[in-house]
Write a structure and sequence with these properties.
267 residues; 2 domains; four-stranded antiparallel sheet; three-stranded antiparallel sheet; 3 helices; 17 strands
Amino acid sequence: MLYGLYQSAQGAAANQRQLEVTANNMANAGTAGFKRDLALAGHYRPHADNTLGGMPSLSDLPGTNPFDLGSAMARMTGGNGLAATAVDLVQGPLNETGSDLDVALTGPGFFQIEGGNGEAVLTRDGRFTRSEDGTLVTATGRPVLGAGGETLTIPPNTARIGVTPDGTLSAGFADGTNYALGKLAVVVPTDPNSLVKLGDGQLTAGSLVPADPRQTNVRQGFVEGSGVDSVKETMSMIAASRGFETNVNLVKLQDDTLGRLLAAARP
C-alpha cells in the first residue's frame, strides 16, 4: 500500500481545517474585541511508536524483504496535521469613541458578564450601555458584572459616568456630586490554554484571578477592535488553499499509480 497516499490525505484534511479557522477569523475582522484563532500544527509520532489498544506496533509486524512492512514503516514518520486550535490573545487596536460607557482593556484580561445560563463568562467587547432599568449591559444585552459578582446599576438622573484605570465606576450628577457605583470585574485565566469560545464574543476558562492593575488598565471612551489582520489572514488562506490543492493532486497521482500497479500485476 502506498504510504504517501495516507500522508497526502492527512495533509489535505489539515489544510481544510486551517481554511475553516482562517475563514472564521476573516469573518470577524470587524468584530469588537474578537480574538483570532490559531491553527496549531502537530507532528504525529512514527508508526513504530504507536499502538492501538495494546496491539503491537507496525515495527513488530512480521515481513519478508524487500517488502518487510515492519522495518519499512518504522523508518517513516506519521506526518503532520492540525493538533488543536488556540486563542491568540494579542492586543487589538483601540478605537476612540468618546462615549462614557465604552471601555477597552489594555493588557491581559477580560471583563466578566452574565452568560445566557446565568453563569459568569468573559469578553473583551467593552461596548456597554444602560438598559431600561438602569443595569449596565453589553451590546447584546448581557449584564456586566462587578468585582464581587454583582450587576452594576446606573441611576436614571446620571449626567456623566467616570471610569478609572482600575475599572471603578462613578456617577456624576448635575449638582456636581459624584457617587461610586462599583468596580468592573476584570480577570485573567490562570491557564490561557483553557479558554474556550462560546460565540457572540463570549469565552469561558478554568480558574480565574483578578487582573494585575500594573499590567492591565481600563480605558474609558475606547473600544478594542478585532485582533484579526485581514492581509495576514488572506495570505494564510492562499497558502492553505495551495497546500490543499497540492495534497489532493498527490492523492490522485498516488491512487492512479496504485491502480496501474495492480493492473500490471494481474495475470
